Amino acid sequence: MAPPSHVASNHTMDKSITLPPDEIFRNLENAKRFAIDIVAKVRSFDHTASDKLYEISVQEEVTARLHFIKFENAYIETCLDFIKDHLVNTETKVIKATVDKEDEMSCLIKGCNFVLKNIPHEAFVYAKHADSEFRFQTTDPDIFPYLLVNIGSGVSIAKVESEDKFERIGGSSIGGGTFWGLGALLTKTKRFDELLQLASKGQHSSVDMLVKDIYGGSYGYLGLTGDLIASSFGKSATADKEFSKEDMAKSLLHMISNDIGQLACLYARLHNLSRVYFGGFFIRGHPLTMHTITYSINFFTKGEVQALFLRHEGYLGAIGAFLKGAEEDNPNQYSWGENYAGSSGLMSVSPDMYPMQRARSGTFDMLEMDRLDRQLVNLPLLQEPSSYIPDTVDLTEDAPAREYWLFCFEDALDGVVKRAVASQPDMPEAAVRAEKFRQKYRHKLQTLRYQPFAYGSLTVRSLLDTREHCLNEFNFPDPYSKRPWLVDSYDQWLERLKGPPHKCALLFVDNSGLLSRGTEVVLASNSGPALNDVTNGELQILTERIAAMDPVIQSGLRDDRLTLVQNGSSSPCLDLSRLDKALAMVVRERKTDLVIIEGMGRAIHTNYFATLSCESLKLAVIKNSWLADRLGGKLFSVVFKYEVPAGKPSQEAAVLTP
């Protein structure tokens, strides 16, 4: 069971359960529904408050934020006490999955659809003996159809064909409850996690009868290796000895997992489905469980079908219950994004492999998601959307690169804190909040050293996004809003423009050069602040002011040949699979045949290897010596990468990402 819950600030419960910090659940009193905080406050900018471009005032606006907490049934009393104290007998609260009972399978599938659509790198393949045990999958834009194997007390198998169409096509009474029940009888161990810990230390071959125990080796005629299990618990019937708890638990785990794996394979082949997702309390991120199921699937399908697991499988029912309760608000009309600052992330439960891993019992796992103001879609010009990978280097698999970039981000932390404080000079508590940011982000970096898979594939982009999320959590939406000027003659230049015009000016330009050629230009800039990148709101002001002085820009705006559109991102990097839907529409309507991507974040850290169905330019100066060396160049090397797909004639329309 994974009930979602809120925990109020300064609320204590003496029930041996670790509470999240006070910051986790902001503005609880404003929540409309159990599991969603409707009015978490964020910062936005009012450009009309000042004449100066970067003297912008801060105002409060509301955004929707989902909070989920997952914990064991042993702590259900704490959950119920919390509901009683904070959510019952109030007019604005609606409780789902507890008071209003919802169909479990329907909720699970709604939750599964939601995470697959909204969380990149949600699904992964588990490879126990690989350098990187978690191999995250690129999500196909079309997530359907798929098979969902939910392993709870028993097993339910559903074929999911669309958002609203699914069918339970099979199941079994032999599931997680069987493992737990028989395990308790065999080992006298009552706790599920302890049973798995026993299994992780056991040798199943002490209890199971293997092929080689019968034939003296492999059975080549049938293609059976000697180490294959011929009979689960087969040796216990003839051996005159006591078997260890560890060995019996391991044998039992193999027996249950192999049975479920074969059942899933048969249904996948029967219904011609290649995507099979496993979830339920039997999984719960346990490496041993995922390994045994993966082995079973690989064996029975000869590698044709992969066992796929979900980072947030423990939250599916709670998410689905929320979605069913919020249908009048139509939550699926928006895109949602995982907030790394407020989420626990995927955690291995192997203390030997990951010494920082906390014990799960008595603690919360958390998931926090923010509703975005716009729908995010693929760039229509991606050549193969299903195989598009934004990031150039996967730090999850590249250990030297991971160590270098984690060091870089930690080394830069003091500077970020100083900029955050400087961005809010009139707020005396800014230094305190900045210190909390420092502690939070440093803890995230330390966690990622041991658990680089926590939020999917670890990349430079995800490290930047995590930093932005942590800054926003402590109300630093734009640390660069007060930008330092090395040389500031701006006011003198404005005064000079009030005087007589120059006779002739030589301008070295980029975008207006395209306009002069008759090319339509779409400027796609960030929707929200990130580092010192220009935002769409700022670009609107800049463009209007430039148009007053530049006839090319002025005519471009007037004739609708120059269009400014937000890209849907608040990151210094660029994920072309998650762009503002309005931008995608403009790209189609303008029949865009040239894409220009500029800057290290957008053209090097991401999209360096991206293939488009039109001509493209990727432009950057490499300002990092390690990255320059990795790419085979030198510091400050210039990248001017022009790519032309075969058989695509030019139509003179461009999208630029400043």
UniProtKB/TrEMBL annotation:
Query: Any idea which UniProt keywords this protein has?
Result: ATP-binding, Coenzyme A biosynthesis, Hydrolase, Manganese, Metal-binding, Nickel, Nitration, Nucleotide-binding
Name the residues that span the membrane. none
Q: Which SUPFAM superfamilies match?
A: Actin-like ATPase domain, AF1104-like
What's a Pfam family this protein contains? Answer: ARMT1-like_dom
A biological process (GO) of this protein is: coenzyme A biosynthetic process
Question: Can you name a GO cellular component term?
Answer: nucleus
InterPro entries (UniProt xref): ARMT-1-like_metal-bd_sf, ARMT1-like_metal-bd, At2g17340_3_helix_bundle, ATPase_NBD, Type_II_PanK
What are its cofactors? Ni(2+); Mn(2+)
Q: Which reaction does this enzyme catalyse, per its entry?
A: (R)-4'-phospho-S-sulfopantetheine + H2O = (R)-S-sulfopantetheine + phosphate
Gene Ontology MF term list: ATP binding; hydrolase activity; metal ion binding; pantothenate kinase activity
- Where does the record place the Damage-control phosphatase ARMT1-like metal-binding domain? 482-634
PANTHER family from the UniProt entry: 4'-PHOSPHOPANTETHEINE PHOSPHATASE, PANTOTHENATE KINASE
Which NCBIfam families is this protein grouped with? panK_eukar
The record's subunit annotation is: Homodimer. Interacts with PKM.
- Sum up the protein's function in the record's words: Phosphatase which shows a preference for 4'-phosphopantetheine and its oxidatively damaged forms (sulfonate or S-sulfonate), providing strong indirect evidence that the phosphatase activity pre-empts damage in the coenzyme A (CoA) pathway. Hydrolyzing excess 4'-phosphopantetheine could constitute a directed overflow mechanism to prevent its oxidation to the S-sulfonate, sulfonate, or other forms. Hydrolyzing 4'-phosphopantetheine sulfonate or S-sulfonate would forestall their conversion to inactive forms of CoA and acyl carrier protein.
List the protein's name. Answer: 4'-phosphopantetheine phosphatase
Name its species.
Nothobranchius furzeri (Turquoise killifish)
Gene name of the encoded protein? PANK4
